[in-house]
Design brief:
- The protein is of the alpha/beta class.
- It is 37% helix and 17% strand.
- The longest helix has 25 residues.
């Protein structure tokens, strides 16, 4: 099977750091990481060019520490370093699984990982390598959601895939309201009007302005990423 059999040639996958914890209180759960690697390998086997932005909340969350008294910029830089650790772990797990991957960091740590260089990242994608973007945007006060929107636009992705613990956007919190129903599709304006928290406001506005759709789905449903890439009814598509 090749990219022609899927609706997408190139996508940006946003993975949260918290998702890497699995059922653990912090850190990286090995079984959860392997599950994600399996889904990414399936995506690559379809011929899809895949870029990944990964968070760091499983190790350090800058926003929370900033709220509790630490200087927010310092806390955010620490959070960026946490995303580098997660990116290296994902790259190594992909290597073991036989999937070529490269990490690029928005912060320069050249002894550890190469810096973000857009033409190089584009070349890696064209070569079939998974490109993992670490350290967010490289700036404090911006979330990794915003980094996903930014890198998605820069890479010419056709969609930003936001992998979460919930299998889409619902009319209400499905954990609380049993009557909550999943939207198959919803417009950016509708999501704003209904105050649905799809991504943070900056990331959401950037995707809307760039006409870059967002697909929200659960990374914990086996085969979900592949079904999204094949255009099946999985998750929620947020569109212009």
């Amino acid at each position: 099977m090749n990219a022609a059999s899927t609706p997408y040639k190139r996508v940006l996958l946003k993975l949260s750091g918290e998702a890497l914890m699995g059922d653990d209180a912090y850190g990286i759960n090995a079984a959860t990481l392997q599950g994600m690697v399996g889904q990414i390998r399936e995506a690559v086997s379809l011929g899809t060019e895949l870029a990944v932005v990964i968070g760091g909340g499983n190790i350090f969350r800058g926003v929370a520490l900033g709220a509790s008294g630490m200087d927010r910029a310092t806390a955010d830089y620490m959070g960026m370093l946490a995303t580098v650790m997660n990116a290296l772990a994902l790259q190594d797990a992909l290597r073991v699984a036989g999937v070529p991957a490269r990490v690029q960091s928005a912060l320069k740590i050249e002894q550890v990982v190469e810096p973000y260089i857009r033409p190089k990242a584009l070349r890696y994608l064209e070569e079939g390598k998974v490109v993992i973007f670490a350290a967010g945007t490289g700036n404090p006060f911006f979330t990794t959601d915003t980094a996903a929107a930014l890198r998605g636009a820069e890479m010419g992705a056709q969609v930003v895939l936001k992998a979460t613990k919930v299998d889409g956007v619902y009319t209400a919190d499905p954990m609380i309201d049993a009557a909550a129903t999943r939207y198959k599709t919803i417009s950016f304006d509708e999501a704003i009007g209904r105050n649905l928290k799809v991504m943070d406001a900056t990331a959401f506005a950037l995707c809307r302005d760039q006409k870059l759709p967002i697909k929200v789905f659960s990374i914990f449903k086996q085969g979900a990423l592949k079904r999204v890439l094949l255009g099946e009814d999985e998750g929620t598509m947020v569109h212009v």
